[in-house]
TrEMBL record:
It comes from Phaeodactylibacter luteus. The lineage of its organism: Bacteria, Pseudomonadati, Bacteroidota, Saprospiria, Saprospirales. The keyword Nucleus does not apply. Residues 163-276 form the SnoaL-like domain. This is SnoaL-like domain-containing protein. Residues 1-19 form the signal peptide. Coiled coil: none annotated. Pfam families: Lumazine_bd_2, SnoaL_3. Keywords: Signal.
Length: 289
């Protein structure tokens, strides 16, 4: 493989990260957290203060015949029920936030699991609409879904999940396990090698590397010093890692992963040679030969 001095600075468009400062996102989250803290405390006053007067409450469900129904609720009845519940009985755990903001309007999608008296009740998604008032952000509308199967009962450890995926991915190459290696990549995933010509979609890489996976070891890159970062909604991650390789010395790998219904999968991986600055001139001269 020839030298390719490559970088991964195109993440802004790929990840669609918001330019909003973190404090703005925290301000939007505040009434949502106030709502659920108030539910756990059975504090109807705290819960009411999180909403605009007359806020809408709906549940998207299928009725007994299987027909889709948007069932309307009542903010007043909900607030009253919170005040009548024993403290700690109403426990809605939020696993993720996807917040979008435009001026005075914000939306927030949250994955949740609801527990009643410590027992699993149901899970689903909350879709919040919020409006920025002179007093701060208030909830103007909630629509939720409710399911009883496949409910999460504890917060996910995405960093550990990704670390295990990447370690297994490198191990799959070292043991020539093609199914595990390519299974760790999204079908639209991209792999960039160290040669300028080496840009493959996953299945193109599978075809090109077929000879390598017929050996006992396809290639053996041993990762260390990995750094991991997450988008604000927690569904996109990017990383950098150093690699100990037999034939190329120390390399750097960097990439992007996305979370979907099948879990975390690699969407982009960039393999780069590491060249000390003081040796760059010699490397450039060698490349001219």
């Amino acid at each position: 493989m020839r030298y390719l001095f490559s970088t991964l600075f195109s993440l802004a468009g790929l990840l669609q990260l918001s330019a909003q400062p973190m404090s703005v996102f925290q301000a939007v989250k505040a009434p949502i957290e106030q709502l659920f803290d108030g539910m756990r405390a059975s504090d109807s006053t705290q819960v009411r203060a999180a909403f605009l007067p007359g806020a809408g409450m709906y549940t998207a469900v299928a009725d007994k015949t299987g027909e889709a129904v948007l069932r309307a609720g009542s903010l007043e009845r909900f607030v009253q029920s919170v005040g009548q519940a024993p403290k700690g009985a109403l426990d809605e755990q939020i696993w993720s936030y996807d917040i979008r903001i435009d001026g005075l309007l914000a939306t927030a999608w949250t994955d949740y699991t609801f527990f009643y008296n410590g027992e699993l009740s149901h899970c689903g998604t909350n879709a919040f609409e919020l409006f920025k008032t002179a007093e701060g952000w208030k909830i103007s509308h909630i629509t939720d879904t409710r399911n009883r199967e496949g409910c999460r009962t504890e917060a996910p450890d995405h960093a550990a999940e990704i670390g295990q995926l990447l370690d297994n991915w490198h191990r799959a190459a070292a043991t020539a396990d093609a199914a595990a290696f390519f299974g760790g990549m999204h079908e639209e995933g991209i792999y960039l090698g160290t040669d300028a010509s080496e840009r493959w979609l996953r299945d193109e890489l599978r075809e090109w590397a077929a000879f390598a996976f017929e050996r006992e070891v396809a290639w053996d890159f041993r990762p260390y010093s990995r750094q991991l970062y997450f988008s604000k909604d927690g569904k996109t991650a990017w990383f950098e890692e150093l690699l100990d390789t037999k034939n190329m010395g120390t390399c750097r790998g960097s990439g992007v992963l996305a979370l979907d219904d099948e879990g975390w999968r690699i969407r982009h991986y960039d393999l780069s040679l590491m060249v000390p600055n003081e040796r760059m001139d010699k490397v450039q001269e060698a490349l001219k030969d």
